[in-house]
Amino acid sequence: MWASLPQSRGLHCSVRLLKKQQSRSAAEQRWLQRQRADPYVKASQQQSFRCRSAFKLLQVDDKFRLLQPGLSVLDCGAAPGAWSQVAVHRVNSAGTDPGLPRGTVIGIDLLNIPSLDGAHFLSNHDVTDPGTHAKLQELLPRGRAHVILSDMAPNASGFRDMDHERLISMCLSLIDLAEKVLQPRGSLLCKYWDGGLAHRLQERLSSLFGSVRTVKPDASRKDSAERYFLARMYREPEK
Predict the structure, then answer these.
(1) Given this structure, which CATH class describes domain 49-234?
(2) Using CB atoms within 10 A of its CB, is residue 106 exposed (0-12), middle (13-18) or buried (19+)?
(3) Catalytic residue among 63, 135, 180, 191
(4) Does the pLDDT value for residue 3 go beyond 90?
C-alpha cells in the first residue's frame, strides 16, 4: 500500500501536466487562428512592416499628423522596430526624398532591435536610466526631440491590476524623460492599459501639456484594454 503512493502521486502530476499542456496548446491555437484572421497581420506582411502595431501609429499619425519631415523622434520600447519604420518614412530620416528636410529617429529598448536604415537604435538600454538620458541628449540634434513615442509595456503577469500599475509607472517615467529632452510645444504618445490609475497619468500629463486626449486606433483590438494618451504642446516646467 505504502509503495503505491509515489506511483499514484506521479500519476496525478502527469495528469496535471497533461492538462496544462493541453490548455496551453488550446490557447496557442486560438492565438494562431486570430493571427491568421487578422487583416493587419496580413497587411504588415504585405507591406514589410515588422509587426502589425505599425498600423496603430499610422492611423494616429494620419489623423493627428505628429510626424513631419525634418522632425526628431524618440521611439521608446522600440523592438522589433515597426513604429520606427513608420517614423523613418514620415520624418524622412533615411533621406529617401532629397527635396524634404531630413529628420532623426532614435529607438530604445531593453531588447535587441534589428538595424534599420534611417534609425539609430540603442538596444539593451533602459529608458529610465540617467545614463541613457545623457546618451540621448548627445544623439538628438541640439539634444532635443520633437516627438516621443512609446508602445512599450511590461511583460504580462496575468494580474490585470498589477500590470496596469506597472505600465502607468513606465508612462510616468517618460514624463521625466520629456522634461530632459522634449522640445517646447513637442508631443508625447504613450500606450497605457485602462484602469483605475489612468487618471493619475492624465493629470500629470495635463500639468505639462496644453492638450491631452485618449485615442484608440482601429488597429488596436476592440477587446483590448489598450489605449493611448496623446499629449501635445509641451510646456517646460518652471525652474
Answers:
(1) alpha beta
(2) buried
(3) 191
(4) no
